[in-house]
Design goal:
The protein is of the alpha+beta class. Helix content is 36%, strand content 17%. The strands form three sheets. Strands 3, 4, 5, 6, 7 and 8 form a six-stranded antiparallel beta sheet that branches. Strands 2-1-9 form a three-stranded antiparallel beta sheet. It has a two-stranded antiparallel sheet with strand order 10-11. Strand 6 and strand 7 form a beta hairpin. The longest helix has 25 residues. It is elongated. It starts with 6 loop residues before the first helix and ends with a helix.
């Protein structure tokens, strides 16, 4: 049965997906701000984060789940094939190290701690090779993380296996696309796309955190263009669409048959499943409120301690004694002529039990 390829309907679905996942992206962005803290950049947390529980959680679990490169182990029961199998095993392990698979998997795991980890596994095109500054050759297998800010999918699906289509936006050098005859003639009409700090619905991108875009959009030395790559699961097609202000245009740049596993090029990692829902629940979502509460208490505790100070009251007749006490160093013996008229008190003395109680409560929490 031949299915109609309705590009305009697909573009409308993509726009709907962007709006449907807007809240997910916003919550993830705020969690990342708490994760990087106050001193990472101007776009980090606006408040100080004395005890960063999110960073502690990510540091421990991120390294524990993916500590190093995975290793392939191949075997065969046919004795004459053992040299070939051993050579293949060594080639696979060398390839895993070459593409730095552990680093990629760590990024995907960290993404899953905040929301969902998305990996794209495919055969590299010239555009894929150009994005990696030719450290990857066209025709080679690769795996890369897909960021939530660039991700789109069928918002009506309840499981990842039900996705009728799924895809993402990516940036490639413009000259690579224009010189590739695998794209349609529309490629000659493409113009450079600015790397805007926000998307089509006005949301700030996570990739902009740390770039300090207070001066507006900055020009890039290499001209890039934004493209959308969509996998049509029913037809097993990979479609490439041009971008226009953060949303795909109703113009097909490239259509190619998918060669690979039935699952398609996208693989998903979710920590906690939600009944009847596509998007998983992430551990950081439960930790975010606790992190904000603990740091709010710590900030209050620090402000309280900073207000506490020791002062000395003296009578008018003991002014000389008070002056000597004021200029004395800690532990120094000071001569006073009227010791009964000098009293040492702590202002805000009622705050000391409160500080002790708060410190004990926070200590028990950890």
């Amino acid at each position: 049965m031949k299915l109609d390829l309705n590009i305009s309907g697909l573009c409308e679905d993509i726009q709907q997906s962007r709006f449907a996942r807007a809240f997910i992206r916003a919550q993830r962005r705020e969690a990342v701000r708490q994760y990087v803290g106050h001193h990472w950049s101007e776009e980090g947390s606006p408040d100080k984060v004395p005890v960063n529980l999110i960073a502690l959680f990510v540091n421990i679990f991120g390294r524990s789940l993916v500590a190093q490169n995975p290793r392939a182990m191949l075997s065969t029961f046919v004795k004459k094939f053992k040299p070939v199998v051993n050579a293949m095993e060594q080639a696979i392990n060398d390839r895993i190290e070459h593409i730095r698979l552990a680093e990629t998997l760590q990024r995907i795991v960290v993404d899953a701690l905040f929301n969902v980890g998305i990996a794209k596994v495919a055969i590299a095109t010239p555009s894929d090779a150009a994005m990696r500054m030719w450290n990857l050759q066209a025709g080679e297998a690769f795996v890369e993380p897909v960021d939530e800010d660039d991700f789109v999918c069928d918002s009506h699906a309840r499981r990842f296996e039900e996705l009728a289509w799924v895809g993402h936006k990516y940036r490639v050098p413009l000259d690579t696309v224009k010189s590739d005859s695998n794209y349609s003639s529309y490629r000659h009409k493409l113009i450079p796309t600015d790397d805007l700090p926000s998307d089509a619905v006005g949301e700030e991108k996570i990739s902009m955190l740390g770039r300090t875009y207070t001066g507006g959009v900055r020009q890039e030395w290499i001209k890039y263009v934004d493209l959308w790559e969509i996998y049509d699961a029913r037809r097993r097609l990979v479609l490439t669409l041009p971008d226009s202000q953060g949303l795909p245009q109703n113009e097909l740049l490239r259509k190619q048959r998918w060669i690979g596993p039935d699952q398609g090029p996208y693989h998903f990692l979710g920590m906690m499943l939600v009944p009847g829902n596509l998007n998983p629940k992430a551990p950081i979502q439960d930790l975010l409120d606790l992190n904000e509460a603990v740091n709010s208490c710590y900030r209050k505790l620090i402000r309280t301690i900073e207000r506490v100070k020791e002062i000395t009251f003296v009578t008018g007749g003991a002014l000389e004694d008070g002056t000597r006490v004021m200029h004395a160093d800690d532990g120094e013996i000071v001569r006073v002529d009227r010791p009964d008229e000098i009293r040492q008190i702590v202002s805000g003395g009622t705050a000391i039990p409160q500080i002790a109680a708060m410190a004990t409560a926070l200590k028990d929490l950890f």
